[in-house]
Amino acid sequence: MGTTGMRIGFDAKRAFFNQRGLGNYSRNTLLGLSTFFPENKYLLFSPKPCRPSLLFQPPANCAMTGPSSMLCRKFPSLWRSLGMGTSIRKYHVDLFHGLSNELPLNIRSAK
């Protein structure tokens, strides 16, 4: 896509909340991509607010986002199933990777 880069979204729940397995895969994928392809903007979708920790410090070209409505904050699984697709469309994500092999039900509406 040239020097402007892409907006790449990730279901980052596992990166922040799993210490092994899918958490390691998620963190290594995000760190590798942000290092070798710094021109891209990486959007980390998480159902709960996350603070950088010793486990994972998101790089500078990563931005975090999560549920905005009270209903979706109260029921994070609802947001991951339906609300995340709306957020993907809102942020004009070019490519989305469900790091834990899950995709929002309404992802097709995000094109």
List keywords for this structure.
111 residues; alpha/beta; 4-stranded parallel β-sheet; globular
Summarize the structure.
Helices cover 36% and strands 15% of the residues. It has 111 residues and is an alpha/beta fold.
Write up this protein.
The protein is 36% helix and 15% strand. It has 111 residues and is an alpha/beta fold. The protein has a four-stranded parallel sheet, covered by helices on one side. The two termini are 17 Å apart. The model has no long low-confidence stretch (mean pLDDT 81).
Helix content: 25-40%
- Helix-strand topology string: EHHEEHHE
The amount of beta strand, in percent, is 15-25%
* Contiguous uncertain segments of 5+ residues: none
Radius of gyration: 13 Å
Number of helices: 4
Q: Shape, please?
A: globular
DSSP strand count: 4
| Biggest sheet layout | 4 strands, parallel
| Lateral strand order in the biggest sheet | 3-2-1-4
Alpha-beta classification:
alpha/beta
**In whole angstroms, how far apart are the ends?**
17 Å
User: Residue-averaged pLDDT, rounded?
Assistant: 81
SSE diagram, text form:
Layout: E1 7-11, H1 13-17, H2 22-36, E2 41-45, E3 62-65, H3 70-74, H4 76-90, E4 95-97
Parallel strand pairs: 1-2, 1-4, 2-3
